[in-house]
Structure formats: C-alpha cells, structure tokens
Amino acid sequence: MRRERVALLTDSTADLGAAECAALGVSAVPLTLEVGGVVYSDPGTLIRPGLEVMTNPALCARMLAGAAPRTSQGTPDDFARHYEAALQTAERALCLPVASSLSGTFAAAVQAAQAFAGRVQVVDTQAVSVGLGGAVRQARAWLDAGRDLGSVAAALTGYGERVFLRLVPQDLHWLIAGGRLSRVAGAAAKVLNVRPVIGVEGGRVEAVSRVRGFHPALRELVRSFPPDREATVLHAGNPEDAQRLAGELALRNVRVTQTREVAAVLLVHAGPGTVGVAGLPPVTR
C-alpha cells in the first residue's frame, strides 16, 4: 500500500532555524514584529509579502532598547499560502502552531484550514519555543516511520504538558509591558532585586518561583531541572549567562544538547538578556 504523503507545518515561534526546517522538510509560517514603526517578518519558509525578515536576534535586542515593540500573530492568509504550497506535493498536511492559549495564531491556522476540504489538520500541542520545535521533530519521526496522520495528531495534542521550560528575565520591563507582571509588583521586585522564574508549560505562562538575584535564579533552574531529560539552553542576546547556565547543568550531570537564541518574536515577550532552559521528551519512532 502506498504511504500517504503528509506535509508538516509550524510557525516561527517554534525556534527552528531555516537550516533545520529544511532538514526536517517543515514549512514555518512567520509571525511579525513591529519596532519603531517598521514591521518585520519573523523567519519563515514563505514570508509575508513586502516585509523585511528579522533574522538577527542580537540586532533585534539593540533595536528594542529604544522602542516599544509589538508582535502580531500569523494571519489566515499567511497560513493559506503555506497550505497551498505544501499541498502541491502532498495529499494532506499537519500543522502545529503555537499554543492556542498564548496566541490567536492557532485560530488563524484553523480558519485557513477550513478552505482545504479536510486536507489540513491543525493540532494544539499547547507548546511554544523549543517545546513546539520538539513536537515538530517528533511529528517528523512518526510520519517517517509510517504512522498515519490521525494517530500522530492525537499523540501530539497537549504535547506541551510534557515539556519543562523555565525562563529568567534579566529586565522586568518586558514582563510588565506584556501584561505578565503588574507595574506595582514589578516596581517592588526591582527594589528587592527579585527575579521571577517563569514556567511555560501546557499553554500556561506563570511565575513558578521568585528568587533574589539573577544568577541565583539561574541556579534555581539547575536545581529544578528534571534528572531524566536532556537540556536545551536558551537566551535572548545573553550568550555569557547561557554558557554559565550550561556549565552548571553539566556539573549536575545534565547533558546539554545545544545553546541557542530565541526567535525575534519571542524575544519581545521575554526581553533582552533573558536566559532559560528546556527539557523535552525524547524523540521516539
């Protein structure tokens, strides 16, 4: 029996670079970022027509220092263009957007899919960033192993509940601007030099602990990291502290598979200087 060809799509919040998207055969729908009145497209296989691509997180961090940035979700038109391109060479498509609770991007992906007569299935993995990237890698492994689209979609629903993702912001301004932290609480935290440890799991973003001092908060990430996972260290223009975190994880016998910068859209919400760590379920076949 001939295997059904299934195209795989996600969005740019999955933190999959262009090279990895190409290696996985994944199409990434870009979200957008507005800085100083200029709208940029987050990296993707097909960009929104007419927009420059924001490809350099370090450049983005410098630009944000003097601007009030805004992000925008992927639109139904963005997803429809990607679906149409993907279905030129596949019978069906599986789309894994950012968690529905974190962005209207998921609703846009679902709306666009309605025009393709059941050929596109959209799954709420309840994941973001490298957690969403992990769901994409798992989807590719299962599809390549011959699992049918329906079983892959069912198994990846709620994948984010199994992801350990913690972030420590260096500057609380961005959490306040994004509404994740009140101005009163933010002012008190600054006076006391308290850093919230932000957990991003299962589509929820919440402060799981509060620690006095940025580097002590990074050590809290090490202390709480699950012993049965491999680590991906994340940062937003802060490679020095990311390397420090990677080293402390290694001292606890945690295998660090990579250290990487977050994508431009996520950088806006986390803020320049943020450092974090993700622990993903192992990819199976």
Structure description:
The chain has 285 residues and is α/β, with parallel strands linked by helices. Helix content is 36%, strand content 24%. Helix 3 (76-86) crosses helix 4 and helix 5 packs antiparallel against helix 6. It is globular, with a radius of gyration of 19 Å. It starts with 5 loop residues before the first strand and ends in a 6-residue tail after the last strand.
Backbone CA Rg? 19 Å
- Structural class estimated from helices and strands: alpha/beta
Order of helical and strand elements: EHEEEEHEHEHEHHEHHEEHEHEHE
Tell me how many strands there are: 14
* Mean pLDDT over the full residue set: 83
Strand order of the largest sheet: 11-10-9-14-12-13
Q: Helical amount among residues, as a percent range?
A: 25-40%
Low-pLDDT parts are 180-189
Number of helices: 11
Apparent shape: globular
Tell me the strand percentage band.
15-25%
Report on the biggest sheet.
6 strands, mixed
Topology:
Layout: E1 6-11, H1 18-24, E2 26-29, E3 32-35, E4 38-41, E5 52-53, H2 57-64, E6 70-72, H3 76-86, E7 92-96, H4 105-113, E8 120-122, H5 130-144, H6 149-156, E9 164-168, H7 173-177, H8 183-192, E10 194-201, E11 204-212, H9 214-224, E12 231-235, H10 239-251, E13 256-261, H11 264-270, E14 275-279
Parallel strand pairs: 1-2, 1-7, 4-5, 7-8, 12-13
Antiparallel strand pairs: 3-4, 3-6, 9-10, 9-14, 10-11, 12-14
